[in-house]
Amino acid sequence: MHARRHFAALASIAIGLTAFPAFAQESAAPMVPGSGSTADHSKFEILQKQFTSGPEVTEACLSCHTEADDQVMHSIHFEWEFENGATGQVLGKSKVINAFCGNVAGNEPRCTSCHAGYGWDDMASPPPQQSSAVDCLVCHDQSGQYAKLATGAGHPPLGEVPGEPVKGQTITGEPAWAVDLMKSAQSVGMPTRDNCGQCHFYGGGGDNVKHGDLSSALYDPDIHTDVHMSKDGANMVCSDCHTEDSHNWAGSRYLLDAKDEIGLGHPGEERFTASCESCHSTAPHEGSLMSIKLNDHTDKVACQTCHIPEFARGGVATKTWWDWSTAGRLNEVGQPIAEHNFTQSDGKELHTYLSTKGDFDWGENVTPYYAWFNGAVEYTLPEEEIDPSQVVEINKVLGTPDGDDSRIWPFKRMEGRQSYDAGNNKLAYSHVWGPTTDTAFWTNFDWGKAIEAGMKAAGSEYSGEYGFIDTYMYWPITHMVAPASEAMDCVECHAEDGRLVGLAGVVMPGTNPNSIVGRLGQILVLLTALGVIGHGALRLIAGKKGGHS
Amino acid sequence: MGKRLVKVYPRFERLWHWTQVLLIMVLMFTGLRVSGVHTLIPFGPAVMLHTLAALALLVVWIFATFWLFTTGVWRQFLPKVEGMLATARYYAFGIFKGEEPPYKKQYWRKHNPLQAATYFGLKWFVFPAIWVSGIIYLSYNFWDSGSDSTVVLEVVRNIHLLAAYVVMAFVIAHVYLLTTGHGFREHVKPMVTGYEEIDLTPEQEAYFEANTPDRLKPLEPAE
Known about the structure:
The complex is a heterodimer. By secondary structure, chain A is α+β, with helices and mostly antiparallel strands. Chain A has a domain at 45-189. Chain A has helices at residues 2-28, 54-62, 68-73, 76-79, 108-111, 137-140, 181-187, 193-200, 238-241, 277-280, 289-295, 303-307, 441-444, 447-458, 516-542; strands spanning 82-83, 90-91, 165-169, 175-177, 244-245, 248-249, 318-323, 338-339, 342-343, 349-350, 353-354, 358-363, 369-373, 377-379, 392-393, 395-397, 407-421, 426-427, 466-476. The longest helix of chain A has 27 residues, at 2-28. By secondary structure, chain B is mainly α. Chain B has one domain (2-215): Fumarate Reductase Cytochrome B subunit (Up-down Bundle), CATH 1.20.950.20. Chain B has helices spanning 11-34, 43-71, 84-97, 113-138, 140-143, 148-177, 184-193, 202-211, and strands at residues 2-7, 195-200. In chain B, strands 1-2 form a two-stranded antiparallel ribbon. In chain B, helix 1 runs antiparallel to helix 2 and helix 4 packs antiparallel against helix 6. The longest helix of chain B is centred in the last third of the chain and has 30 residues, at 148-177. At the A-B interface, helix 11 and helix 15 of A face helix 2, helix 3 and helix 6 of B.
């Protein structure tokens, strides 16, 4: 009986061993036609023509994908508007002022170059509503040569000869080339990192400027930079976590799933969330006594807090300080200047002063800022009154210490100085981009004119006086998860000068050895020791060992 | 009436004692690390070692408790008021004048009244406080019910901490008291060999000889 069982075990191991080479051979064999899809778009006649514009391609797409335009137009990628159910605020790129380039209104064709559509050139109106205004290719192109022009309100750079250089830059800052729309249209597939990255890695006007945990390093990260996206790791793409339903994606920086207590859900249950727990469960650590202790943490500490010890990893720095108030300084001949005093780890020199934008600090491998967070973010909206004597929080992360809905999360805290309406004590809109206007800051370097024009473009009342305020802006850190072996060591927090010092609502041994009770105990031990020493000394002086002498 | 070497600490009791010594040393060292008093070893391993040593000690205690009650040795640890004042007086004054201790070790009464009271307090209050709080602390995941639990955990943690320092104070006094009387070596020896010199009445001696001869060391042949 036993012998037979052993034989069975050995046999299954042997089968397992031989199975691997068998699979390897299979994958080397010719691909199954249409692998991954049942359609080869290069075979569709409607896509076999020279397109002259992006919208023309979209029309071709919609001839089969009849509902796609409607779906996309109801997504945040197109609306740039988000009603936050937790706070009631209406947010989105079309509504908020941030701590980077500020506002879209008045700067449209530049800012709307990243819009998932074509031709939105006025924030005072909603995005264009015709079906062909949706940009299918920006997310679905797999030819790798589709791009959006940096100043084209979402349109791609086009020209006579596809692939040849044309005027301008793409939204990633590269010199533009003429996009081959037919090639793009025939290449379509599910979005990859390159699709999402060309907008999301370059927010704030450059590589990793804004988020800190989303940079071009994620196109092909090593395993230390991102265990999920690395080819040596899980080799995942954005949409593996950011699951989708009818062109709406899970995951939001305005209202996120900060404490997922459902985890894996029921077998087969589809979870519409981008949380770690939706794959890793609510008890993710397994296999040792230590894992039980680590699982004790998950109710108070977000996964990200330990598993993303630092952000802006992988060799791309992020902006940590942006001082708009110093912008506008010109050289002797009235020309804008640029200083480059930050050397990135790859040797690249990054700007630390630009006449157009002011002073900057950069950071690589940055230690996050930590706060209790329930997932809801509340903005200081342009119409709200601010206190210019204090640091103004452009956004606040909501949550209560030890709140049942909150956990301790890591953030990038962007610090800076930006303009405000000094008469009305409100954040100021500014008109920075506009090569042909006489008010745009980046061409005229006059704050008075730029703010007046910005306020006007946004339809906001302006007192005529402006000033500068100190600001903080918080960016939840959730990408660039390190391999488990490189997660934060216990002592990073469990120490007197630990990372979470000052955060109330959590029992953390090791942070306060001299608490009242600790001191009391130490005094007891000390008195005992003194008593013993005194007693012993008296015995020595008396010259007697005591008893039985 | 004669002094005889009697096995006062049977093998299990000695094993119990020294296992306890080792584990309590480990627990004190790692406990101080976890609470942040020293940083001689990394935090994570300290937590693991502390947990494992505590679980091992609990097992030892379960066996010891069983042993104490089945053998009746538990009576050794019952405190008595009688003789306590005299013993206290001895350690406060008499010891310096070289007086004889007012208490003689007897077979059924290994501890002097002060010792018995101390062990009573330890076994009934301090040790339960430390292991009950420790188990509650360790099993946080099983009873945690949200934010209210943090306050409970804070209380439990402080009870654990205070009890731990009381144990540490006990260890200091305990080791020091071994140096009194016949001295450290003589005091530690019985806990190693098991045998200690005890005054036996002729009746007791006869009883041992007849019933449990293995507990008496045979008299050296007269030279």
